[in-house]
Structure formats: C-alpha cells, structure tokens
Amino acid sequence: MRTFAVFDLEFTSWPGALENDWAESGQLREIVQIGALRLNHDFVVMEEYEALLRPSANPQLSSYFTELTGITQKSVDRDGQSPAEALGDFLGFCRGESVLSYGNDMVVLGENVGWARARGETVKHGYLGAHFLNIRPWLNSVAPSTATANVGRLWQVLGLPSPAHGTEHSALFDCYSMAAALKWLADAGHVLPDGCLYT
C-alpha cells in the first residue's frame, strides 16, 4: 500500500527569535523534538515517529521555549537522543516517502544535519531517499482561513474535532492537526498538488 509522511519540528527559540529570524548571536534553530506520521492514501495513520533531541550549542532550554512547547529541561536531559542519532533515525523513517511539512521545516532539518556532520558525527541516511515538500502554500490557497494559523491550530480553524490528545507546539500533535486538515480538504474534493504522493 502506498504511503506518505507528514512531519513537524520543535526547535530552540527565545522571545523575539521568530520576528528576528533567529538573527541574534548564538541563536540557532536546534531541533528539540521531531514528530511524524506515516499515512496511507485514506489518511489513516499507519505509523508514528517521535523523538526528543539534546541541543548541542544551547543545551539549556529557554523558559520561553518550555512555556511554548511544554518540553522541560528534565525530559530532554533524561530522554533526549544525540542529534545525529535522532536525525539519522528520522531520515530512515522518511526513506521512500513523500514527506510533507506545513512550512519550511526541511530547511531546519538540513541545518541540523549539517551541524551534526560539521561536529564530525555520522548521520545515517540522507535526503536523497525522500521527497520533502512544504504543503503550506497549497493548503493556504485552497483554505484561505488557514493563512495565519500555525500547524497545531489547523483543525480549529477548519472547525474539525480535536485530532489527538495534546496541544499545539507538540510536534506529534501538530502532525495530527496537519493530517486532519489534509483529510478534510481531500474529502472536500481538493487534490493534493503534484509531487506530494510520488511513491
């Protein structure tokens, strides 16, 4: 059965970082959480992926980030994987799939893979085995009410039932929100753009 994936990232942040495009000295978009779902073409979840990562350049999470995501320093210190290990596992999860994000999360993913390799760490797997695509421009064009919504609020903006247990800014919950929005649009007759389901 053909499948595709959706994914979302939570990465280090500070007050004003988004508005300033992480331009302040030392502010790197280090991934702290990865969430992903493998879906079939009926939008049924076939598999989940979730990982916590320990940031390297900024190992202490900002209180702003913790308040936004609910991810605590204790949980990252206890359960966080090394970036190279988690990134390699995630890229393995993506192999052979179209991998959709609501925004340019693949750019942040690439930054983090580059930093891990620059530290001399081995990242298993690579990008060539998957097809990453930002679905946000298409989704906003066919459902204009979503234009100002973050991924974790798509279900609310579209008037859908909560898609999973949890809240926005949790990577896996955000994936469920995106999947619910895509299913709703497909049920309404909107066809995903070329390149989304290439496998």
Summarize the structure in words.
The longest helix is centred in the last third of the chain and has 17 residues, at 171-187. The protein is globular, with a radius of gyration of 16 Å. It has seven helices and five strands. It has a five-stranded mixed beta sheet, sandwiched between helices. It has a domain at 3-135: 2-Layer Sandwich (Nucleotidyltransferase, domain 5), CATH 3.30.420.10. The protein has 199 residues and is an alpha/beta fold. It has helices spanning 63-69, 73-79, 83-94, 105-118, 136-142, 154-157, 171-187; strands at residues 3-11, 31-40, 45-52, 98-101, 131-134.
Sequence-ordered SSE layout with sheet pairings:
Elements: E1 3-11, E2 31-40, E3 45-52, H1 63-69, H2 73-79, H3 83-94, E4 98-101, H4 105-118, E5 131-134, H5 136-142, H6 154-157, H7 171-187
Rg, nearest Å: 16 Å
Low-confidence stretches: none
CATH topology of the domain at 3-135: Nucleotidyltransferase, domain 5
Global geometry: globular
Task: Report how far apart the termini are.
Answer: 10 Å
Order of helices and strands: EEEHHHEHEHHH
Structural class by secondary-structure content: alpha/beta
Number of strands: 5
CATH hierarchy class name of the domain at 3-135: Alpha Beta
Instruction: Supply the number of helical segments.
Output: 7
CATH architecture level-2 label of the domain at 3-135: 2-Layer Sandwich
The amount of helix comes to: 25-40%
By CATH, the superfamily of the domain at 3-135 comes out as Ribonuclease H-like superfamily/Ribonuclease H
Major sheet attributes: 5 strands, mixed
Across the major sheet, the strand order is: 3-2-1-4-5
Strand coverage percent = 15-25%
What is the residue-mean pLDDT, rounded to a whole number? 93
